[in-house]
Amino acid sequence: MTTAKRHISRLLATALSALLIAAPARAIVSTGTPTALHSDTDGDADADRRAISREIERFRSSSISISQAMSIAEARHAGATTADVSFDGADGVPVYRVKTLHNDRIWRHTINATTGELVGGEAAFPLAELDHEDRDNLAALGAIRHRLAEAVRVAERAASGKAISGGLVRERGRLNFSIVVVSGDDLKEVTLEPPGAK
């Protein structure tokens, strides 16, 4: 997930501390429409809401969870770790788009959200092709002991729902996990600051 100006005002709903001993240090749950799920409807708020509702409905009808999709992608390369994952139900078959980090390469996987099968193979590109900030973020991912899968579990518990996307973001100079959770009919963005992240 890339950093972008937020289209919503952040409302602090809950601050949780020490959900688990191994959990990230702080979880902040914000309500509204996270930037990652804004559609390409040229700012039409009603069209945005309809597009997001369709996406959520397709997500709910999928039998593969985001955690399962990450596990499937990580299993393709022993020792791989997920850097970014998102659900895409816009066209055709709903899928998860998963980016994993392994051996100084970013691997892109598309996982069928119904069957768990890999769609269309996988693509890899070297870290050297990324910009400086993305390389720094991925280096930090390798240095912290927490993984995106753990952040997803904490976020789902904190927001009482199921994660639809997640990844690393840098906000105000700090590296965080940002997880978008479907909770009832709402989307909640959970920001988790891993201990030791810089």
UniProtKB/TrEMBL annotation:
<keyword id="KW-0732">Signal</keyword>
<dbReference type="Pfam" id="PF03413">
    <property type="entry name" value="PepSY"/>
</dbReference>
<dbReference type="InterPro" id="IPR025711">
    <property type="entry name" value="PepSY"/>
</dbReference>
<feature type="domain" description="PepSY">
    <location>
        <begin position="64"/>
        <end position="120"/>
    </location>
</feature>
<protein>
    <submittedName>
        <fullName>PepSY domain-containing protein</fullName>
    </submittedName>
</protein>
<feature type="signal peptide">
    <location>
        <begin position="1"/>
        <end position="27"/>
    </location>
</feature>
